[in-house]
Structure formats: structure tokens, C-alpha cells
Design a protein that fits this description.
The protein is of the alpha/beta class. It has a single domain, classed as 3-Layer(aba) Sandwich (Stationary-phase Survival Protein Sure Homolog, Chain: A). Helices cover 27% and strands 28% of the residues. The protein is built from seven helices and 13 strands. A nine-stranded mixed beta sheet has the order 3-4-2-1-5-6-7-13-8, with helices on both faces. Strand 5, helix 3 and strand 6 form a beta-alpha-beta unit. Helix 1 runs parallel beside helix 4. The protein starts with a strand and ends with a helix. The mean pLDDT is 95.
Length: 250
């Protein structure tokens, strides 16, 4: 099976490189291709940089490249035949991913976060092309230790399960508790509703900077947020297409 691995934290993210190496060791029967942004693209959502400028794709090791675009651009390059050219495949050989893996994100992608997440957008983009796709996130905070070993081993153990769970017009969104202890359980959830209290601070008269505020989550039993605060792995099927109240019959 051909696996495409990308993220929105950038190709140099240490936990991402650890994840890639761990997949290669644990799944030698698969071919892993890594194509991730040159730099941190967190919060870029589903932007397509390639619509406005050429994309630079640079080699970063065996079957690994960085791209000047967004996470969605990385997936697009791979799914539109780019892996064959980048891999210098023999004439006539077409290399297409059988699964897109986005992550493991440094931080949560719960509920409303999915609007902003480049990690979620990468999985969404893969699914739009009809490829089973999963977004993985570790729900830690910037001021605490991240327990990557557990998150990485658990994710690899369940990749086939997430691929089997996938269906057309959806991608799979997985959030992992940031715990050094074994996860309590894995449950199917729905996206939570989150509100943001960010603000703008001016550095000088012409320069301002986003300042992070508190995230307020609506408490609902069965939501992804509810699973995480209970120490459980959250697995959600996320519909790809915009939905209005009319679509929902309300």
C-alpha cells in the first residue's frame, strides 16, 4: 500500500519526522511517501498557494520532500501525479497514494477547529479525490510535555482501522489524549462547538499581531471534546461538503 504522510507543522517538526520513521519501521510492507510544507502552516485551513504561485518541491531524504505550499497543496501534488515525477519512476509507472495520513498535529483539532486546521484540510483534500484520509492530532498544550511515543505507536496500530472506517464524502478525524498512560478507550464522536476569544495587539502603528485567547467549548455528551476530557480517543467522520440548515431539514 502507498501511504502519503503530510502535516501542517512543517517538514522539520521533530515529532513528524519521528512518526514517519516509526511508520517505515512498523510497516515495511508499505511504501511511505512524505510530502509536507517547507515551514509551519498551522491555521492555513484549505488555502491553495499553488493557485497564485509556482510551488517549490525540494528533496528531504528517501521518498521525502518539502513543498512551499499548504498541506492541501502537498496532497494535491501527490494526487495529481507528482509522486511519479518526484520519485523518478520508470516510464509508465503511476504512483498514487492508497491512503492520506495528516499529522500527528501538535495540538488538538476539535470541532470548530477543523475550519482553520491545515491538518484537517490535508485529509479533506485527499478525501475529495476519493482517497481514504485521516487527520491525527495530539491534544496537548504549548506549555506542557507532549507524549509522542504513545500517540505515534497508537496511531500506527490503528491505521488500517481508520482506513476501513473511511467512506466516500468523509474524512476521519482522530484526536488523541495527551497522556503517558494507556488511553482509556476509543469512541465515535461528533464535532464540538468552540468559540474563540482571540484579539489583536499592535506592535507599532502599521503592524499588528494575533494574540491567542481562551477557547470556550460547549459541553455536549458524545462530542470529541467530551471524549478527550474523559481520557478517551475521539474518532469522528467529517462530511466534506458545506451543509446549511436546509440540508439538515431544520
Amino acid at each position: 500500500m502507498n501511504l502519503l504522510l503530510t502535516n501542517d507543522d512543517g517538514i522539520e517538526c521533530k515529532s513528524f519526522l519521528q512518526f514517519a520513521e516509526s511508520i517505515r519501521k512498523a510497516r515495511p510492507q508499505d511504501r511511505l511517501f512524505v510530502l509536507a510544507p517547507h515551514k509551519n502552516r498551522s491555521g492555513i485551513s484549505h488555502a491553495l498557494v499553488g493557485l497564485h504561485e509556482d510551488l517549490e518541491v525540494l528533496p528531504k531524504g528517501p521518498a521525502a520532500w518539502s513543498c512551499s505550499g499548504s498541506p492541501a497543496d502537498c496532497v494535491g501534488v501527490a494526487l495529481m501525479g507528482g509522486l511519479s515525477t518526484l520519485s523518478k519512476a520508470p516510464d509508465g509507472e503511476i504512483i498514487m497514494p492508497d491512503m492520506v495520513i495528516a499529522g500527528i498535529n501538535v495540538g488538538a483539532n476539535l470541532g470548530t477547529d477543523l475550519i482553520f486546521s491545515g491538518t484537517a484540510a490535508a485529509a479533506r483534500h485527499g478525501a475529495l479525490y476519493g482517497v481514504p484520509s485521516v487527520a491525527l492530532s495530539l491534544c496537548g498544550h504549548w506549555n506542557e510535555e507532549f507524549y509522542w511515543d504513545r500517540a505515534i505507536s497508537y496511531s500506527i496500530e490503528h491505521l488500517d482501522e481508520y482506513k476501513a472506517l473511511w467512506e466516500e464524502n468523509y474524512f476521519i478525524n482522530v484526536n488523541l489524549p495527551n497522556s503517558k498512560e494507556p488511553y482509556k478507550d476509543s469512541i465515535m464522536t461528533f464535532p464540538s462547538i468552540r468559540r474563540y476569544t482571540d484579539s489583536i495587539g499592535f506592535v507599532d502603528e502599521t503592524t499588528c499581531r494575533l494574540q491567542w485567547g481562551e477557547i470556550v467549548t460547549t459541553p455536549e455528551a458524545g462530542s470529541d471534546w467530551d471524549a478527550i476530557i474523559k481520557g478517551k480517543v475521539s474518532v469522528s467522520k467529517i462530511f466534506l461538503h458545506p451543509v446549511s440548515d436546509n440540508n439538515r431539514g431544520t
